[in-house]
Design brief:
This protein is mainly α. Helices cover about 35% and strands about 0% of the residues. It is built from four helices and no strands.
Length: about 130
């Protein structure tokens, strides 16, 4: 990839499991994206694998996102309708940085500095010490 992630890293986890007789009962993960560009650079491998895993083709367009809280229609949340439970998991990677599977010690330190700078700028009820 432009970020320096090679195909060997993408398939390493599967090869490690397949080459380890004591781990033969553990199903291989298969592919690991080292950065966001892996999905396009190695699309000939990722697209069929994702189709098989999800049972459908990946979407042709990126998922739309909106970070404007004012865009939430509050009238849809009022009245007799109630939310009983909400659970979510958030996982993001910083654009321009490798994913954890391919990140070097120096890259991890750089990500830490970026996050620490952002955390130090939080104020009011979000303020804290890092």
């Amino acid at each position: 990839t432009p970020g320096g992630v090679g195909f060997a890293l993408v398939v390493k986890s599967a090869l490690d499991v397949l080459g380890n007789a004591s781990a033969s009962c553990v199903p291989p993960i298969g592919l690991v994206a080292g950065d966001a560009d892996c999905y396009t650079t190695f699309s000939e491998v990722f697209v069929p694998a994702l189709e098989r895993f999800h049972g459908r083709a990946p979407p042709a367009e990126a998922h739309p996102s909106c970070h404007d809280a004012a865009a939430i229609a509050m009238d849809e949340l009022s009245g007799d309708r109630r939310v009983v439970s909400v659970r979510f998991r958030l996982s993001r990677n910083l654009a321009g940085h490798r994913f954890p599977a391919a990140c070097t010690s120096e890259g991890r330190a750089e990500v830490e500095q970026v996050l620490a700078t952002c955390l130090r700028e939080l104020s009011d009820d979000l303020a804290g010490d890092y």
